[in-house]
Amino acid sequence: MKHFQKGLFAIITTLISSALLAQTINPSLLNGLRYRMIGPHRAGRTVGVAGVASQPNVFYIGVNNGGVWKTNDYGHTWNPIFDSENTGSVGDVAVAPSNPNIVYVGSGEGIQRPDLSIGNGLYKSNDAGKTWTNLGLHDAQQIGGISIDKKNADRIFVAALGHPYGPNKERGVYRSLDGGKTLEQVLYIDENTGAVQVEIDPNNSQIIFATIWAARQGPWENGSWNGKASGLYKSLDGGNTWKQVTAGLPTTTEDGLGRIGFTIAPSNSKRMYATVDAEKNGGLYRSDDAGEHWYLLTSDSRLWGRGSDFAEVKCDPTNEDIVYSANVVVWKTMDGGKNWTGIKGAPGGDDYHRIWINPNNPKIMAIGLDQGGIVTVNGGETYSSWYNQATAQFYHVSTDNSYPYNVYGGQQESGSVGIASRSNDGNISFREWHPVGVEEYGYVAPDPLDPNIIYGGKITKFDKRTGQVQNISPEPVRSGDVRFIRTAPVLFSPVDNKTLYFAGNIIFKTQNGGDSWEKISPDLSREAWDIPSNVGVYNTAELQKMKRRGVVYALAPSYQDINTIWAGTDDGLLHITKDGGATWKNITPAAISSWSKISMIEASRFDINTAYVAVNRIRLDDMTAHIYKTTDGGATWKEITKGIPAEPINSVREDAVRKGLLFAGSENQVYFSIDAGENWQSLKLNMPATSIRDLVIKDDDLVLGTHGRSFWILDNITPLRQVQTKDLATTKLLKPQIATRVRWNMNTDTPLPPEEPAGENPPDGAMIDYTIGETASSPVTLSIIDSKGIVVRKFSSNDTLYKIPEVNIPLYWIRPQQILSKEIGAHRFLWDMKYSPINEPAAFPMGAVKNNTAPDATAPWVMPGVYRLQLNVNGKTYEQTMQINMDPRVKTSLKDLQRQHDLSKICYEGKQLAHDKFPVIERKFNQLFQILENTEMTPTATIEKAVLATQQEFEKLTKK
Fold first, then answer.
1. Which of 197, 372, 391, 659 gives 44 a disulfide partner, CB atoms 3.0 to 4.6 angstroms apart?
2. Which of 167, 201, 172, 197 is nearest to 184 (CA)?
């Protein structure tokens, strides 16, 4: 028994030691934290779309890194329905014609382009998207098409494109006869060739067509190849055997055949149309004998070009001569392809990817495009909006020094965005954002000294006051000496706020707002490089003669020294200068090979010789995490990814307050470390799975730029700056952040309709974080005490919710109430920075926000200043102080704020004393209170006189 006890003690000791050594915290301590999405609601690239024929109001869209969304009102509103899954990249959505509750989703975008994200297999829902099951094909990475037998929802075909950056065997066409329980590979060419589209003949389910596409993305940007095995295949026996259809079509050997998109006319299966991408003889083709022979309709590339992006052609369900082609513009023919008319598009190029047409009513259509999902119910006369889907794709994120601060980024497919982190109107709507003159992939760098001036792209200067954009490029006319790719670093020095850096293959510096530029580096890319093994069969002698093409992709000026700058390239080099760019030193660790993209460098906030580097090797077909750390100026490096699963890393940042607190953004979520990267753990919280391309720490907030779900903010990360590994079973009142007394909703007008999309404002009130480590045997209380020792507010876990009267509004407007929690774990409690409300029937303001409208205030604001917080748990008191500052936009003097406070307090106390006894006086006090509490402007002499007169009147009445 003694030996057993000794052994058990040793095991327990080892486990405890391991937990402490791991330096991770219990996930329950994160329970008080929550992200909020701020927008914008301008949609991103959408390549999956499906409707429900029997429910013409219902549609689904699949978004690049945005998941799956559903509408039941013809696209007027959309809601995400895939947020519980661990991928957000979607290539296709299909609804079973025989059972609209059955929906299949193929993950991975299913196209070849430089900003793609992969998926993790095939999904199925049996309840119209409420729940999902992953069916497999995890290594297919990209699923471009799904076809469901119109009579049998269990019989499906799946087009698996495979790895975009390398060879793999899980690709080709798969068939399931049991609803996805088993998936059989029925068409496979080789490890370099996948399937991107598959369709069952709508009139003969034994006939199947599939597009086979041999393509590979290169390790460098804008490098891609088509292989020699692409083509259109046909099966006559339900997918058991296949033959390639070639008669009349371009070939891979002679014509450089790429991707083919095709459609079968539902009204006549012999009629087919195809967009054929080829170096020679590309065009839009037609077949009148079920694909056996083809002939060219038009070589106009507007209808078929850019096959890596576009290959959608769709036939009207009732008329074989009416056909649509989706490209930069949606084109329509009414005569079988002789004449074409553009019916949807814009000068900037909307880029249309997928079309779904209701077989029961061809005037009802849904289209997936670079700007999201849209619906028409009148044959294309009008369409629903794409400004109602928060699926924007950003490459980088930045913030300015305004209050409230603004969030910026270049939005893929659309342009740029500058959006407020909080609104005066309770939620962040279209009123709070505007383009800022930066190209779609660009960095955005607001001037630290003047938030009205915005820099970005390659490279522009935008003035918010005039709305004008100026090109300030150091090379306004390209010489060929400087190379750029879609994303070029643009950022200010944190040491000298007048110094702005801009990089291509060389680095530029300006100190006069771009009026003139200085070159401060040579070409920092590789002079010689290896062709990575994942290029495989596409590695040719010609490719090995490729010209130098790397660029500086990441730049990190030091936080301590103006002359120290770190730089990283997309072809896998790291450099440092310590003399402002006069000389540069190659500090690349041996583990970083050619074309390992240096995605981000973070110079330490605390040590000039420490830096963190995120290396993304997705273009080398490496889907694992890579973060490196140096503490000696790059002389030595250590890889620090323990705790992060196989997910490419895009970004890494260091907190400016807590040394060792790091954040990393992967292709799926956010991670954090409290020990300088030695151990990582998830900080996904309530976020959907999406590509986190960049993140920044702004004061106490973590701000995320996603590539598919717009901007998100984790408000108030101060708990992460304090929490320790040993806090698992302890009760603590954490040091609160400085609270700002700001009005959450100042809208005086009728609210926006609840259907109008909007982002969330920050939590309304001072945030108080605490943890409870043991069962509370008595009520938990929280007291807030002013500088005079007076308790201005007290909360208890025994408090009861206020009773909502029989109001004349729908209850969906009203904000859920919060009670101080006594449960074990972490909690965030909000104090509205007001005195205790008067117990009277609640009334609600006109300027409401759906699900977030607080009752009209019945108690005054407390004054700015220092307050003591006392948390009492099981008879023990925990204490902290809280600083409350005034909204910095309010310029009223402290003296006048005190005057307003005192007058409001007179009315507040007078209302309570006059209640029921002196209704006229109570009414006067209430009216004056509402006038005073609606603003921080200096009280007028008239108001002050009226308050004092009412007070005197009340005193006289009480004496009687």
1. 391
2. 172
Residue 144 CA to residue 472 CA, distance in Å, equals 41
How many percent of the chain have pLDDT more than 70?
A: 97
CA 146/CA 464 separation, integer angstroms? 46
Strands 681-682 vs 143-148: parallel, antiparallel or unpaired: unpaired
Q: What's the pLDDT at 959?
A: 85
Buried b (16+ CB within 10 A) or exposed e, 110-129: bbbebbbbbbbbbbbbbebb
pLDDT given at position 728: 62
Handedness of CA 192, 193, 194, 196 (dihedral sign): positive
Tokens found for residue 890: 């309010």
pLDDT at 22: 55
Q: What is the pLDDT of residue 602?
A: 98
pLDDT at 18 exceeding the cut of 60: no
The one-letter amino acid at 68: V
Cβ contacts of residue 236 below 8 Å, gap of 6+?
206, 207
Residue type, 226: N
Residue 383's pLDDT is: 98
Looking at residues 323-334, what average pLDDT do you find?
97
CB 43 within 8 A of CB 371: yes
Beta carbons of 896 and 939 less than 8 angstroms apart: yes
Mean pLDDT over 833-852 rounds to 94
Residue 248 in tokens: 């009349």
Give the H/E segment covering residue 959.
helix 941-959
CB 842 within 8 A of CB 828: no
* Three-class DSSP labels, 460-489: EEEECCCCEEEECCCCCCCCCCCCCCCCCC
DSSP state of 835: P
When pLDDT is cut at 50, 70 and 90, the band that residue 26 belongs to is confident
Sequence-distant (6+) residues with CB within 8 A of 342 are: 329, 330, 331, 332
* Whole-number Å distance between alpha carbons of 545 and 567: 26
pLDDT at 617 over 90: yes
The confidence score (pLDDT) of residue 726 equals 66
Could you give the angle at the alpha carbon of 433 between the alpha carbons of 427 and 435, nearest 5°?
A: 165
**Residue 440, CA distances (Å) to 44, 394, 457, 698 in order:** 11, 8, 8, 23
φ/ψ (deg, to 5) at 897: -65, -40
Q: Which residues does residue 235 pair with via DSSP β-bridges, in sequence order?
A: 208
Question: Any idea of the CA torsion for 936, 942, 948, 952, to the nearest 10 degrees?
Answer: -150
pLDDT of residue 4: 38
Please check whether residue 443 is in contact with residue 456, taking contact to mean a CB–CB distance below 8 angstroms. Answer: yes
Token match 């393509």: residue? Answer: 215
pLDDT of residue 254: 87
Residue 38 phi/psi, 5-degree rounding, is -105, -15
Asked whether the CA dihedral 5, 6, 11, 12 is positive or negative, the reply is positive
Q: What is the pLDDT of residue 440?
A: 95
**Ordered strands of the 876-886 beta sheet:** 739-741, 876-886, 865-873, 781-785, 791-796
